[in-house]
Each structure stands twice: as C-alpha cells, then as structure tokens.
C-alpha cells in the first residue's frame, strides 16, 4: 500500500515539539505555484477584500455569512415542500380520500421558484462585484511594473471571475436538489434531478453572463468616462429588476399557467420561464407540453448569445479600460450655481451653526466623491424601488389575459417604503468605517470625545442631511405615484395626507435611525458602536429590518387613512409627529451627553480593555 494512502488512516499527532525537534525536521516546504496561479489567487482575494464589501477588513467573515445565507432559502423551501407532497392521511384510509400529489401547475410553480432564485441570486452577486470585473488604477500601476505579461494577467482575472461566479452559483443552489428528490418524491428521480440541476445552473449562468456582457458592452462602446456616469444607474436598475422578480413570485404563481398557455409576450421575454422550460422538458419527457419546447429553445439560444457577447465584448472593454486608466481623464469642475440659493436658505434656517454647516458640506462632498458610499445608496434604492413596484402592482386575469392594476392601499404604503429605504441607506453609508482621514481636524479642534456643545451640531448635520434628502426623494415619489394612482388618491385631502405622512416618516425615521449614532458621518472607527452594528451578525441585521419595516409601513397606511377622514385628524397626526420628534430628539441628546462624558482615549488606545465594553 502506498505511503501517501496509508497516511489517510493514521491519527494526526498534535503534540507540542521543541525548537530543536522542529529545526531537525528541515525547512518548511512551500508549495510551488505558477505565476498564473498566484495572479488568479490575488484577483480572487480582491473579490472578498475590497472597500465596498468591507472597509474595515472583515470581508471574509461577511462573505461566509452571505454565502450561507444565500444557500439557505432554497434549502428551507425544499424542506417545506415535504408536507405538500406528503399530506396527512386520516386513519382508517379510504380510497376516495387518499390525497395525491399536487396538481401539475402547482408542481411547475415549485420548480419555478428554484430557477428564479438562481437567476436573482447570481445576478445580484455579479452586480455587487461589478467594479472588480475590470482592473482599476491600483492594478494598472502595481501589476504593470511586475514581470508579468499582460495576457497572463488578463487570463488570471478571467479565471478569477469564473471561479467566483461558479463558486457562488454552486453554493447558493447545491443543498436544495438533495432534499427536493426526497421531499417531492418524483416518479423518475433521475430525470427529475437532471432537469432541476440543468434548469438552475442554466438560469444562474445566464444571469452572471448577462451582467458581464452588459458591463463589457457599456465599457467597450461608451468609454470609461461615460460608463462611470451611468454605472450606478445601471446597477440600481439591475438590482431593482432582480429583487422585483423575486418579490413578484407569489403573483407569478397565479398567472404563470395563463401566461405560458396563451403564449403571452410576458412569458416569451421573461428569462426564468426559458430555463423552466429546459427543466420541464427533461422532467416531463416526451409527454411534455409544446410550450416547454419553445421555452427551452429560447433558453439555449439566449445562453449562446449572451456567452458570445460576453466573450467578444469583455476583451475589448478590458483593453480600453486599461488604456484609459493609463492615459487618465480630464476633470471638470462641478457647477453649483443653481444650488447656491438653496444653500443660502439652508444656512439661514437649519444649518446656522458653523460646525453644523461645515459637517453638512463635508457630507455632501464625500457622498458624491467616494463611489463606495454611492453604491450603498444604489443597492438600498434598488431594493426599495422593487418593493414599491411589487406593492402597488396587482395582476388579474380578465378574459384569459393578464391585466395589471394599481392598488390604492399599495400607493399609500409605498410612501412609507420609500422613506424607510432612503433613510436606511443613508444611515448605512454615514456610519460605515474606513475614512479616518476626514476626522483628524474634528479630533484636534474638539477632542475625542468632543464636548456636548460641539458634538450636537456635528451629529445634527447628518440628521438634517438625511432628512432633507429623504423628504426630497419621498415627495418626488408622491408626485410620480399620483400620476398612476386611482381617482380616490387625487383629491386635495388625500394629497395633503400623502405630503404630511411623507414628511413625518422622513423626520421620525431619521430620528430613530440616528438615535444611537455618536460619530460624525463617514468617520466612524472600526471599533465603534456603529461599526460593530454594521459588522455584526447578518442574521440579526436582517431580523431588525424585517421587524421594523412592517411597522413603519403599517403606521404609514393607518396615518394616511386617518388624515384623509378630516381636517381635525390632520391636526392630530401633525401634533403627534411633532411630539414624537421632540421626544426622540431629547433621547438623542441624552445619548450624546453620555458619550461626551466618557474619558478621552489616547491615540491608538482601545476602549474594550479599559471598560470591558461598558458605559458609565
């Protein structure tokens, strides 16, 4: 028996050895890796350790949490399908009452979920790593000086992209097929497993290649300067469409049979239906419906077209990106003539204190200068917009055709949804760590922690910035929603209710989200409370949003119905908003006073060993 094979069955020895024994063992053999392998590992490492994923260096922990979270939904859904396919039989069983498997189209809807989830998860993962698919200035300046051929660097980046996308696709969908065969008990387990794996893999591969192809075409055709201007809008639109498709799944389950059997244009141009057809064609075999043949052909053709576009556009975009990074682009001054009157009004009203005014402008300049903060807003905005669309749309089947309608209560709830996601996105961007260069002036002038008289204006600037931005976006959403809202929401009383609730939601959500924030925007340290909240458990963060978000939407709906009933109720709701705002403002002042009363730490001194994480 070979020695290498025998070592597999030997018990590992973890005894502590002296330095002499370790020295006698000889030098440690470092594995030999080629330059191609080292470059691929480097680029793959960049996918996990970059400032967008985690500015404070714990990206691997977050990515492991996200990977586990991505693989759980299909696995849990597969387990919950067991009672659907194995209902309880009342004893003694009667042949006429023995339940059978679910109807055919119910089973098709179950298969659609896994195909749709693979499409959405893979698309969001590709959009999140959007900026890492192409080299940046650091790659060009550092790797360009090394003795590595450009072709080898290009192939290493392509290999890293393939490993990342393939690994995420397998991670997000590998657990479900193991449970599905047992949970659904198909007549032909082999055919079912082959169809499910093919449909899910094809859907995920198409989503990843589609994002890469779109980005490659934009960079190759539009150029670096124009691409940077439209990049965030394209990312936000992609996130919106992907999340909206997932949120509309319960609606799709009701209209999917009609869409597919009527050969509707919605079905012909909805990619998950294509890969559902590929899956059903294998599962059903020769007895499958003719519609699955048409959808499967569309799926294979779409895969070939997207793969061809990605393979053709990516090298051209890569070369053009590297050339423009080396040449550079001319910077243009931003014209602020139209904003000067607005700034004058703000200086005379809400940002009168010099410290508050300085931090207010610091927030605005940093937000529009650093891409990492803008991508946070794009992702939150995309999720919020998708939730709004899924809330206001209603699909009904009329005379065999699908008809879309706008829900009145959905429009009312949408106001709270917009305000929530705007303020939540701004809060996430403001408390993110990693920008210590902007805090040294405040630390020198006001100390750390600063005095109460200096801390309150600094922190109030972030609240004013978030509240004004939230009010502007929410009122703009009110105007857009009014154009498509039913007639009952176009009256004067309904409009006044929408405006009051929009402003009140933004004001109170700002107070609530920034209640425990004690650091100036964009200058939070890695060990601060705000950063610890952001870097903590993803599960608890999601749970907090799932708990708070329904409460906000429910209160917004109730408040609008109340205000629409009369002028007296309008005054009561307005007074209630003012009272809650003053109470939250007092609570925030108490939190800041407690923070300012702490001992000032020396440079580099940690807070935990001195106080064990306790406040006094």
Short description:
This protein is an all-alpha fold. It contains 25 helices and two strands. The protein is globular.
Classify the oligomer.
Answer: single chain
Main β-sheet, spatial strand arrangement: 1-2
Number of strands: 2
Radius of gyration: 28 Å
Helix content: over 70%
Q: List segments where confidence is low: pLDDT < 50 over at least 5 consecutive residues.
A: 4-9, 526-536, 604-616
Amino-to-carboxy terminus distance: 67 Å
Classify the beta-strand content into a percent band. Answer: under 5%
Task: Write the element-wise H/E pattern from the N-terminal end onward.
Answer: HHHHHHHHHHHHHHHHHEEHHHHHHHH
Biggest beta sheet attributes:
2 strands, antiparallel
Shape: globular
- Based on secondary structure, the structural category is mainly alpha
How many H/I helices? Answer: 25
The overall pLDDT average reads 80
Note down, in words, how this protein is organized.
With 616 residues, the chain is mainly α. It has helices spanning 3-6, 19-24, 35-48, 59-80, 82-85, 104-128, 137-143, 150-173, 175-184, 189-247, 249-261, 265-268, 271-284, 290-327, 339-348, 354-369, 371-392, 408-430, 440-446, 452-484, 492-513, 529-534, 538-564, 567-596, 608-611, and strands at 393-398, 401-406. β1 and β2 (401-406) form a beta hairpin. α4 (59-80) runs parallel beside α9 (175-184), α10 (189-247) packs across α17 and α13 packs across α14 (290-327). The protein starts with a helix and ends in a 5-residue tail after the last helix.
């Amino acid at each position: 028996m070979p020695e290498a094979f025998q070592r597999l069955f030997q018990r590992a020895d973890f005894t502590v050895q002296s330095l002499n024994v370790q020295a006698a063992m000889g030098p440690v053999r470092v594995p030999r890796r080629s330059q191609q392998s080292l470059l691929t590992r480097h680029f793959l490492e960049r996918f996990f350790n970059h400032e967008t994923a985690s500015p404070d260096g714990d990206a691997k922990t977050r990515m492991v949490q996200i990977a586990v979270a991505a693989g759980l939904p299909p696995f849990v859904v597969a387990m919950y399908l067991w009672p659907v396919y194995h209902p309880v039989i009342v004893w003694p069983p009667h042949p006429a009452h023995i339940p059978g498997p679910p109807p055919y189209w119910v089973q098709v809807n179950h298969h659609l979920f896994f195909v749709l989830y693979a499409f959405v998860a893979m698309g969001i993962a590709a959009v999140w790593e959007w900026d890492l698919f192409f080299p940046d200035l650091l790659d060009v300046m550092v790797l360009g000086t090394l003795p590595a051929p450009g072709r080898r660097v290009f192939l290493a980046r392509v290999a890293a992209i393939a490993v990342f996308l393939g690994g995420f696709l397998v991670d997000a969908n590998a657990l479900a097929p193991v449970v599905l065969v047992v949970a659904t008990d198909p007549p032909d387990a082999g055919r079912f497993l082959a169809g499910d794996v093919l449909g899910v893999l094809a859907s995920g591969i198409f989503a990843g290649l589609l994002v890469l192809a779109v980005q490659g075409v934009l960079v190759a055709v539009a150029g670096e300067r124009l691409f940077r201007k439209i990049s965030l809008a394209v990312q936000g639109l992609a996130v919106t469409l992907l999340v909206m498709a997932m949120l509309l799944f319960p609606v799709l389950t009701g209209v999917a049979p009609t869409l597919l059997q009527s050969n509707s244009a919605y079905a012909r141009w909805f990619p998950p239906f294509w890969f559902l057809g590929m899956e059903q064609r294998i599962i059903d075999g020769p007895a499958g419906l003719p519609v699955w043949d048409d959808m499967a052909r569309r799926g294979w053709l779409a895969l070939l077209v997207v793969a061809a576009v990605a393979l053709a556009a990516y090298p051209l975009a890569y070369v053009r990106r590297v050339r423009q990074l080396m040449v550079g682009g001319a910077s243009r001054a931003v014209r602020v003539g139209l904003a000067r009157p607005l700034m004058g009004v703000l200086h005379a009203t809400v940002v009168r204190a010099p410290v508050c005014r300085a931090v207010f402008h610091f927030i605005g300049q940093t937000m529009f200068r650093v891409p990492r903060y803008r991508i946070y807003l794009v992702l939150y905005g995309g999720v919020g917009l998708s939730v709004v669309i899924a809330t206001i749309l209603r699909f009904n089947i009329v005379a065999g055709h699908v008809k879309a309608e706008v829900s009145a209560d959905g429009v009312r709830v949408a106001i709270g949804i917009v305000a929530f996601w705007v303020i939540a996105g701004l809060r996430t961007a403001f408390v993110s760590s990693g920008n210590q260069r902007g805090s040294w002036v405040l630390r020198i002038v006001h100390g750390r922690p600063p005095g109460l008289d200096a801390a309150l204006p600094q922190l109030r600037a972030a609240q004013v910035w978030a509240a004004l931005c939230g009010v502007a976006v929410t009122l703009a959403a009110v105007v857009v929603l009014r154009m498509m809202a039913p007639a009952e929401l176009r009256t004067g009383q309904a409009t006044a209710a929408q405006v009051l609730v929009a402003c009140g939601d933004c004001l109170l959500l700002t107070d609530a989200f920034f209640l425990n924030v004690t650091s100036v925007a964009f200058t939070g340290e890695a060990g601060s409370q705000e950063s610890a909240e952001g870097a903590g458990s993803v599960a608890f963060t999601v749970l907090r949003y799932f708990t708070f978000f329904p409460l906000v939407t429910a209160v917004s709906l109730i408040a609008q119905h109340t205000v629409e009933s009369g002028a007296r109720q309008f005054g009561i709701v307005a007074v209630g908003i003012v009272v809650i705002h003053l109470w939250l403002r007092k609570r925030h002042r108490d939190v800041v006073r407690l923070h300012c009363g702490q001992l000032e730490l020396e440079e580099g001194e940690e807070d935990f060993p001195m106080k064990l994480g306790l406040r006094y």
